[in-house]
């Protein structure tokens, strides 16, 4: 009898674990050499009456003092310092801790913001789903979404500044090229920056 109870408990835990799928953060930048996104700049509208689900990882901001002087209305990403600094058109500066690309997946240069997406959907490509058949066609907004609640798209390299479902990665070289931010930080930055904002990515 005890053996049957143990087997039933093990089966229940296996099923519950299989249903509680959370998709690891993934930027997709290295899967297809910067090509093959399913129209990454198209405007996916946010779902109606969207509310973040309970249990979404809350950020633990560790703001740093700005350490650079740049033109107004510019984002500077200091890769080695894992810091993003935004200087407003009025000259006020905001500094945020970020996660950057892993070794060999980092991009440097000057680009610009081309679009923004509120509550982005994550759409794994065909090649990603071929490698991992468990991936769905679309990951809706919510705690399982690797892009978090906001995504800011850059012109070069198909890179993004976005939230994350893994706040523990902030401050590390963890992504495939994109820049991850804590939830409250990316939401604040999203409200301030507009398409056309200059972005400088430094070593």
Automatic annotation (TrEMBL):
Domain of life: Bacteria
Biased composition range(s): Pro residues: 42-59
Span of the signal peptide: 1-20
Active-site residue numbers: 162 (proton donor/acceptor), 178 (nucleophile)
UniProt-recorded Gene Ontology molecular function terms: glycosyltransferase activity; peptidoglycan L,D-transpeptidase activity
Keyword annotations from UniProtKB, A to Z: Cell shape, Cell wall biogenesis/degradation, Glycosyltransferase, Hydrolase, Peptidoglycan synthesis, Signal, Transferase
Domain L,D-TPase catalytic positions: 73-202
GO biological process, one term: cell wall organization
Pfam families linked: YkuD
UniProt region (Disordered), positions on chain: 35-68
Pathway: Cell wall biogenesis; peptidoglycan biosynthesis
Family (UniProt): Belongs to the YkuD family.
Full protein name: L,D-transpeptidase domain-containing protein
């Amino acid at each position: 009898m005890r053996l049957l109870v143990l087997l039933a408990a093990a089966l229940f835990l296996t099923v519950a674990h299989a249903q509680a799928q959370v998709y690891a953060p993934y930027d997709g930048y290295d899967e297809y050499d910067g090509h093959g996104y399913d129209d990454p700049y198209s405007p996916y509208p946010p779902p109606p009456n969207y509310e973040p689900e309970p249990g979404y990882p809350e950020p633990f901001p560790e703001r740093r003092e700005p350490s650079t002087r740049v033109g107004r209305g510019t984002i500077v990403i200091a890769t080695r310092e894992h810091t993003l600094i935004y200087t407003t058109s009025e000259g006020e500066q905001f500094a945020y801790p970020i996660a950057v690309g892993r070794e060999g997946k980092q991009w440097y240069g000057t680009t610009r913001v081309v679009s923004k997406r509120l509550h982005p959907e994550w759409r794994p490509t065909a090649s990603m789903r071929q490698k991992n058949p468990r991936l769905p066609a679309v990951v809706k907004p919510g705690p399982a979404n690797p892009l978090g609640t906001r995504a800011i798209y850059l012109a070069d390299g198909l890179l993004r500044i976005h939230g994350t479902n893994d706040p523990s990665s902030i401050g590390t070289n963890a992504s495939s090229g994109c820049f991850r931010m804590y939830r409250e930080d990316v939401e604040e930055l999203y409200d301030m920056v507009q398409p056309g904002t200059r972005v400088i990515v430094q070593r």
